[in-house]
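Could you help me review a protein record that somebody else here produced? What it holds is a sequence and that sequence's fold in token form. I have pasted the whole thing underneath without changing anything:
=====
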Amino acid sequence: MINHSQTIARELSVSEKQVTATLSLLDEGATVPFISRYRKELTGSLDEVQVAAIRDRSQQLRELDKRREAILKSLAETGNLSPELEKLVADAETLTALEDIYLPYRPKRKTRATAAREKGLQPLADLLLAQKNTDVESEAAKFIDPEKGVTTEEEALAGARDIIAEHVSEQPEIREKVRNVFYQKGTYHAKVIKGKEAEGTKYQDYFDWTEPLKSAPSHRILAMRRAEKEIILSLDVDVPEEEVISIMESRFVTAQNAAAKQVSLAIADGYKRLLKPSMETEVRLMSKKAADEEAIRVFAENARQLLLAAPLGQKRVMAIDPGFRTGCKVVCLDEQGKLLENTAIYPHTGAGNTKEAEKTIRHLAETFRIEAIAIGNGTAGRETEALIRNLGLPGITIVMVNESGASIYSASDVAREEFPDKDITVRGAVSIGRRLMDPLAELVKIDPKSIGVGQYQHDVDQNKLQASLDDTVISCVNAIGVELNTASKQILSYISGLGPQLAQNIVDYRNQNGAFKKRSELKKIPRLGEKAFEQAAGFLRIRGAEHPLDSSAVHPERYTLVEQMAKDLNCKLSDLMKDDQLRKKIKLQNYVSDTVGLPTLNDILNELAKPGLDPREKFEEFSFTEGVNAISDLKVGMKLPGIITNITAFGAFVDIGVHQDGLVHLSQMANRFVKDPNEVVKVSQKVAVTVTEVDILRKRIALSMKSEQSELKPKVKPDFRKEVKKNVPETDLQSKLAALKNKFS
């Protein structure tokens, strides 16, 4: 296997030693979260994004090597492999360059050029390419052969031109130059298909649209391609044809005579018939791939923010899945999310039913000592919220919960396994309640593509999207850690080193033997070997465990080290975890060794201070504006509270409680230039917005987050260095790495 460490190190601006160590760990089966958290000394403290980038780039280069081997084998089998060609193939650094080299030798269906060669016209093509002063008509006449299908001089010349056209269009240097013109100067031109105007109103912005290919944003490319797929738009890539043909002629037209004119004719034909369609297909795929990368990045970042939303925590929760005619499904859950009771109320179908519903809610709240009520934000959500708030239930938090994906969960195998004797409406209500208590623990049960964030997720490469979302979920779960004795098998399956089968084995063992008392018990789990234990143990917590560190993120392999710290201070380990003054006495340099450095020691010290601390933000109560329940209630100029539900490249969508999210365009996010919405907002963030436009017919709401006071008013000259540092998006590194991966794939 070829060592690509040097290449990857150069591309990602890290050291070759870091890359080599990371690849070695990955090849041994270590996961990205484990490497970035517990192997900092080996990798030079690379974070998850960098480790994942090394993994992905290595996979791309290994795939490139496989293709290289296949091409060399094919060239050898067909007798075309010369030392010069072998070197070209070996030196090709990208898949595109590799395929360009192989193109002239690739087995292909019968073409006009191959037909001309079969007619014996290759010598005539070679003669024309030499462009000597000669009578081309006389030379062509020598190749007339009715038995071979050549009856005139023009037929002979046409065949020779076909050979030249194919030859020119397959030259790697020509393809590279023409490709660059397409990339740099190509423009997308979208046009509505005649008769499709009424059918494609949602695409009317693109009915006659021209935009440079290299600067077209992801969402517009995906929108135009979707409209093309739906046969609403025609979509073409236009380039300056004269410039391209000039490039080709400068390489192949070397004289000014009759033969050169034949070559020029062949070049023009080869470009229009062969090279242009090939390049257009290639750049369309390239721009689609880039658009996919950006859309997937946005989706993954949104999913991360949603998964890491602030949890309410272990509270006794009543959850309501609202509805009008079909009623509201009500469930009561204990602190661990266990279903205690379920029923249905019909508060929106008549005064008598409203009274009965209020009575039921009061009774359930008192009986099950409810501390919070979660109400789904779907149909009848705001009406149900108003009803509950009017009850004036003391000491109970009332929260509207985004129910996207709850219906997906309720009909899933996971839900059927959890609640085999309950219908989907009860399961959906349980999901709403649990996602208030712990969004991460509940949302991992749902396909990330169904949780209501992202843009054009059904139009992008589904395998890449799934891989990215899986990475995101794994990262989030391991960043938080899970309680071993209460975690579902779904969330356990995302823990480093585990997976669905080991997660099920853990749950089965827990059910048969009771709660885990210490991490080391994991070694008793069937099929959970030393490697899996090493990968998983640090991310699993046991509250109230026999060993104090079992409730922390300190890895068991470092227990002896921490115990030595306590021994050196002549105190108990539990005292070291409780007493900040004792921890300050620890001299970390004394514990540096060949395998443990200051990065790990600092992590250990931080963890001792706050063992098992949940890094998510603290939960804050939120409520929408009373009386604003539908889009018809909105007026321009209204100032409303809202919650960010989705972030795209062009802005953020905000739930303001009217069953239709409004859009804060990028230009309306702040009183300054905003390049990336993530600079300003994140999913589930509470924001204040102003209504700037309402289109009831098209169900569109435009919002602004700009403050009334302009940032230009202060006369104090700002410190631009601080501003630049402050405004660097957290996702910049991810964006650059995604672009890099795209460039070299």
